[in-house]
Amino acid sequence: MSKLKVAILGSGNIGTDLMKKIQRSPTLELTAVIGIDPDSDGLRMARDSGFQTIDTGLDGFLETPELADVIFDATSAYAHIKHAEQVQAFGKRMIDLTPAAIGPLTVPTVNLHDHLDTDNVNMVTCGGQATIPMIHAVSELYDIEYAEIVATIASKSAGPATRANIDEFIATTSRAIEVVGGAKSGKTILILNPAEPPIMMNDTIHLTVRQEISDEDALYTALKKTERAVQQYVPGYRLKASPYIEGNRISIFLEVAGAADYLPAYAGNLDIITAAAVKIAEEWAKSDSIMSRR
Question: Which residues are catalytic?
Fold first, then answer.
């Protein structure tokens, strides 16, 4: 089976970590890395690895659009809006790692197979990728009236793009908690922790459900099943403890360690979103939805 040709738009931390992961993929072929700074670390590493690099942004790529069928957009929410318009005329599919959320909000373990034929999917946010699988697992058992997540990441793992998109991060994550996770109302809190040495990504989920919890064992079994599903593409994803249950309230505690492909292991917030994006592309490659377009 031929591999699916993909390109990365954005040569920052996210784009460079994507490059490392795609190199290991049995179903994806990285054909180009696109940036705007020829001296960036990401483009330099791409050149050293033998990949074609383009330093004139998406306009440069569109001069030879046959290079790739799928583009990972690792730029910014503002830039993605323009990029999505530009590639539409060329029939390319996009996996959006910004909080722009033009396309459907996608979390692999929850709704990946709903979007195998979608041209532009949004990877929600790192906080959403970590917490929504667990929220959805609870929603399969109980009606969730309210879900609140507290995403705590090492300050060092929050680059310029993350800091410039905090408002979009909060809005997109809160909406995804409701639309994908199944909660009636969602809220997101982000903490950039400056501790040294840097902490791992930690996420706490507080839920209020309509009924009192009737079967704690069934709930724990569902959460462990979800943990194993996410670990298929993020091995460092784990429940830190059993859920705390009091009446109709549940608290869940998570930790995400990164694979340290390009960034340190404490940058699990970056690792989980790049790993989820690669998972989506690999499922597209296995389906015939793209190959049949050629």
Answer: 126
